Amino acid sequence: MASSTSFPASGSGSKKPLGKMAGWLRQALSKKPKEMPASQESHPSDVPPRCSQDHPPPPDPSSPGSPTLPPAQEGAPGSSSGRWSRDYDVCVCHSEEDLEAAQELVAYLEGSSASLRCFLQLRDSSPGGAIVSELCRALDSSHCRVLLITPGFLRDPWCRYQMLQALSQAPGAEGRIIPLLAGLARSAYPPELRFMYFVDGRGPDHGFHQVKEAILRYLQTLS
């Protein structure tokens, strides 16, 4: 005997919910994805943006804002000029009988606009100091050496010693030794100095201007 109880067909009760789900899925797929902001596209989250402060660009020396060192003040002790590495600019070597001419040369050099610092043996040597020691100290403490070559200079063995001592400390000349020939013919010029030019002491200023210019040229090479 057949039962009067009837069961709904399989899946008939889920047609309505499944239809709603399919409709929702179609709506979700039909929607366009939201566009990401430009800042997020250019800088993905796994790559951090570059910071300019980590690697600042080198300063441009031509730009107005670039720091510049102040120029060194020349003509004063403690400046960067090599002139002040020694006590004197020039040591004047002369014979005893030419002391007056040497004093005239020193007065000219010290009174010039360059205010050259000169060592004059009888004036600047330490009292009680040994003559040879004082000469060596003067040569070591001076940039240039002026040899006042006169007949008295050639006759004086002490002047010859000064000349040889100056040559031993500046064998290549390099403008440090400045011979000033006065009262002598060119043929009497010492053979030890034939490899360097001399200043002719004839003329209104006795060659003092040329001596000063030669000293200044050498001092400029030190700065």
Per DSSP E runs of 2 or more residues, the count of β-strands stands at 5
Separate helix tally: 8
Label the structural class: alpha/beta
* Assembly type: single chain
CATH architecture level-2 label of one domain: 3-Layer(aba) Sandwich
Strand line-up of the largest beta sheet: 2-1-3-4-5
Write out the CATH superfamily name of one domain: Toll/interleukin-1 receptor homology (TIR) domain
Q: Quick summary of this structure?
A:
It contains 8 helices and 5 strands; from the N terminus they run ααβαβααβααββα.
Helices, strands, pairings?
Blueprint: H1 15-30, H2 38-42, E1 88-93, H3 99-111, E2 118-120, H4 121-124, H5 131-140, E3 142-149, H6 151-155, H7 157-169, E4 177-181, E5 199-200, H8 208-220
Parallel strand pairs: 1-2, 1-3, 3-4, 4-5
Explain what this protein looks like in three dimensions:
By secondary structure, this protein is of the alpha/beta class. It has a domain at 99-222: Rossmann fold. Helix content is 35%, strand content 11%. It has a 5-stranded parallel sheet with strand order 2-1-3-4-5, sandwiched between helices. Helix 3 (99-111) links the parallel strand 1 and strand 2. The model is unreliable at 1-16 and 36-75 (pLDDT under 50).
Jot down its keywords.
five-stranded parallel sheet, Rossmann fold, alpha/beta, elongated, about 220 residues
